Amino acid sequence: MPQNAPLPPDLRRWITENLPGSDTHTAEDVSWDRGDSRVWRVPAGETKVFVKLSPSLKDYEREVAGYAYAARVLAPHEAPRLLAADPSLQAIMTSLLPGRVVRGLPLNSNEELQVHERAGNLLRRWHDASPTASKQDHDTIHASMASQASEAAACLETTAGHLDDKQRALVQCVARELPQLAENLPVVYRHGDYATRNWLWDPPHGYGVIDFEMSAHGIAVEEFVWLCAAVWAPRPDLKAAYLTGYGRTLSDSEERTLRLLTARLGVSYLATGLAKQNPALVQRGHLVLARMNHE
């Protein structure tokens, strides 16, 4: 979606109907720089709201359920509240949460440690309130692990010449071990995209989290994959602070699964980068795989 895109007319009408006093003509496009992100910040008197068009009905339904869950288990300053939703438009309207996105935020070392500990603490409370997973949830998780193992095997075929012996062996372990390893790991209701782009930090109010589009049952350790790849490998102190907040260390099986899931992410970056001739993705893939081989 192009930046500064105007509100679609039907969405503009919906906002006006659900939020009297809103100024839809000065709505600001705040979408992420990716094709399926459609988010606007809309003034409404002395406050503002966010309005989002979900990319699919499944995303819409997951996000509405995620907001309902957040309202039950998190304090008002820890998560936005759902103000209105429309399945025919796949539109949601949410309150504004104080704070700034952590990703790219200039923080000193003490602040970084504090943010990671708070993030771990909030996620533990989120996980602890999880409803029991259904058989369908377990079947979906099993299928996801099998799919990621198959993806790793397919990526290996196209990237093998770009990997050293240890990296090839690691990706082979993903394909071989992942489904079985994940069978007996803790299953929780996950946030689903618990990365620093969805963390908010505001010293007067504390820590908060946004974006519940990927919320669903899954193995708990899946929440840590992006952090493992992008943040924790060079900063074990941040991982330690996070797990302090989370209230427990990871089991050996969870650590192994986290390493393999992260390697799967790395080889996926690499395969996609090679296919699309994207040097940034190629570099990211090599970096993640190198980091996992030093774990």
Number of domains: 2
Oligomer: single chain
Q: Give the biggest beta sheet.
A: 5 strands, antiparallel
Shape: globular
Instruction: Give the integer mean of the pLDDT values.
Output: 95
Q: Would you identify the CATH architecture of the largest domain?
A: Alpha-Beta Complex
CA-atom Rg in angstroms: 20 Å
Helical percentage = 40-55%
Question: What is the topology, as strand order, of the major beta sheet?
Answer: 1-2-3-5-4
The CATH class name of the largest domain reads Alpha Beta
The number of helical segments is 9
What is the N-to-C order of secondary-structure elements (H for helix, E for strand)?
HEEEHEEEHHHEEEEHHHH
Distance between the termini: 38 Å
Q: What this model shows, in words?
A:
The protein has helices at residues 9-18, 57-73, 109-128, 135-159, 165-182, 225-232, 236-246, 252-276, 279-292, and strands at residues 28-29, 39-44, 47-53, 82-86, 91-95, 100-101, 187-190, 199-202, 206-209, 216-219. A hairpin with a 2-residue loop joins strand 2 (39-44) and strand 3. The longest helix is centred in the middle third of the chain and has 25 residues, at 135-159. The protein has a 5-stranded antiparallel β-sheet, with helices on both faces. A 3-stranded antiparallel β-sheet has the order 6-8-9, covered by helices on one side. The chain is globular, with a radius of gyration of 20 Å. The chain is of the alpha+beta class. The chain contains 9 helices and 10 strands. The chain has 2 domains: 9-96, Phosphorylase Kinase, domain 1 (2-Layer Sandwich); 101-292, Aminoglycoside phosphotransferase (APH), C-terminal lobe (Aminoglycoside 3'-phosphotransferase, Chain: A, domain 2), CATH 3.90.1200.10.
